[in-house]
Amino acid sequence: MKRNLRYMAVLAAMVAANANAQDAYNLTSLTSSDLNGTARYVGMGGAMNALGADISTMQSNPAGIGLYRKGDCAFSLSNNTGDESRKFLNKGENFVSFDQLGVVFSFEVGDSPEYFNIGFNYHKDKAYHNVFFDARPLGPGLSQTYQMEELFKSPGRVSDMAEFGYQTGLLAKDEKGNYIGIGASEYGFKKYERGSRNQLDFSLAFNFDNQFYFGAAVGCSFLSHEIASLYSEENADGGYDLSNYLKTTGTAVDFKVGAIIRPIEDNPFRFGISISTPTAYYMKVDNGFASIDVNENIEGYHSREMGAFINDYRIETPWKFGLSAATTVGTQFAIDAEYEYQDWSSLKYKYDDDVEDAVVTGLNSEMLKGVSTFKIGAEYKVTPKLSLRAGYNYVSPMFHENSYRNLDPDNSRYAASGSDAIYTLTSTDFSNLYGINRYTCGIGFRFTKAYLDFAYQHSSQKGEFYAFDDYQPQASRKLMPTSFTNKRNQVMLTLGYKF
Questions:
Q1: FRET pair for 173, CA 20 to 30 Å: which of 153, 327, 397, 423?
Q2: Distance CA 441, CA 376 (A)
Q3: Backbone angle region of 79, left / alpha / beta, with phi > 0 → left and psi within -120 to 50 → alpha
Q4: What is the DSSP letter of 210?
Q5: Distances (CA, A) of 169 to 6, 304, 428, 439
Q6: How far is CA 182 from the centre of its chain?
Q7: Mean pLDDT over residues 148-174, rounded?
Q8: Pairing state of beta strands 238-261 and 280-294?
């Protein structure tokens, strides 16, 4: 039985919970991207940055719309499902999504073979639709309360997570007067996440003599993200529930430039280059709370809650660079191969007054690394009215193998800087994710001016989940992770019209 009565903690550290609770795991979850766009673009694995002539290329290489010689408009829908076959579930609710809407206007310049094109495109850059849960027994010396204990012992400012343990009695005095965690025999964990990040691009592109294409685009993103989690521990005397809830909205701006070059006249081979500036996110926590409910049967135990907090902060993502090469064989076959690189170790976190949090940024540089993305895609025209497509992506891991959620900024070489963002974290769970494999295919139908495209995408990513960091050097007390595989299936439809 749990206490129904909750009340605000009175310590200043708890009141200071108004600070922004963020770290590398939260920031990368908010700012990483999915493969999305038109069904043709997705069906070829997004490998169209040298081939061009698709509305969705403006989100990666805006020179791609320079290959248009007539106008084009398109909109796309998709159905997304997740895999439910694992012990650690990523349900990825089955939902229909409006994913893309765009238009390109093409203008011939005089009598020369030169074109000036303008494009607008909306697309869903990221979908946050997940449910995670896990439950397992805990061995001796393993408990979230022991992490609270270690945080309580840390020099300097006491973190909110340690305050939770102290204020609720989950840290008990031993015979020497030291505060220690009460331990646990098992835990349960649930997390629910929903929302999306959508981007609107405005692009200009130029075609010079059908050999050199140049483009630039400005992107504006709009984000809405909601996440709730519940962590529970039980032992012989009872247990507790730790709840966290956070609702975040934000906007972002980025700038992209790109070029496509055909070095040999009358030869279809071409290569592309693209550069994306850091995306500047302006984030606002619209609502959030953290609370602990403790079993009232245990004497001296109390429940605590942090009140709602509303804050602004900023994220600055790394630069992104892309190289691509493509060719066609006659009028029937086209192939494109690409490489992209983005150094996530340079991810920056700032407060709303533009002051950088040196601890978060420093820990990002240790936990995160450069990410390489390889893409290949091909299209075969069976007839002038029927096309078949296929593609593949590999995205390398973003985190180093032994990364962990550091809730103790005083136990790092950045301690002198302090970090409200780390001190106010009250969720201990984290997942270290491996590389992403995406397999795509598609089919396209052409009519006089209209076209209808379908695509299928299957993505798979393995990872290891930790409910907390064990802080224990002994092998016998090491918390073993829960291995899982996130799988997602997407079916897309695009309806378009050439004019």
A1: 423
A2: 12
A3: beta
A4: T
A5: 15, 10, 18, 51
A6: 35
A7: 82
A8: antiparallel
Among 132-136, 175-179, 412-416, 460-464, which range has the highest average pLDDT? Answer: 460-464
Question: What's the CA gap between 299 and 290, in Å, rounded?
Answer: 23
The three-class DSSP label of residue 400 is coil
Tell me the domain boundaries of the chain: 12-498
* CA gap 164, 306 in Å, rounded: 9
Nearest Cα to 343, choosing from 374, 364, 327? 364
Closest CA to 64 of 218, 373, 274: 274
Paired tokens of 179: 């505060």
Burial (0-12, 13-18, 19+ Cβ within 10 Å), 183: buried
How far is it, in rounded angstroms, from Cα 294 to Cα 292?
A: 6
- Whose tokens are 């997940």? That residue is 130
By residue count, the chain amounts to 499
Let me know how many helices (H) and strands (E) the chain has, helices first. 7, 20
**How far apart are the C-alpha atoms of 192 and 185, rounded to whole Å?**
24
3-state secondary structure of 142: coil
Architecture of domain 12-498 in this structure: Beta Barrel (2.40)
Q: Which residue has the tokens 């973190």?
A: 159
**Cα(177)–Cα(170) distance, integer angstroms:** 15
What are all long-range contacts of 305-310, with beta carbons under 8 Å and residues at least 24 apart?
Answer: 305/6, 305/7, 305/8, 305/9, 306/8, 306/9, 306/14, 306/17, 306/160, 306/426, 307/8, 307/17, 309/17, 309/18, 309/19, 309/285, 310/18, 310/284, 310/285, 310/286
pLDDT in tens, 444-489: 999 999 999 999 999 999 999 999 987 655 545 578 899 999 999 9
Whole-angstrom Cα distance, residue 129 to residue 115?
A: 41
Query: Is 70 exceeded by the pLDDT of residue 302?
Result: no
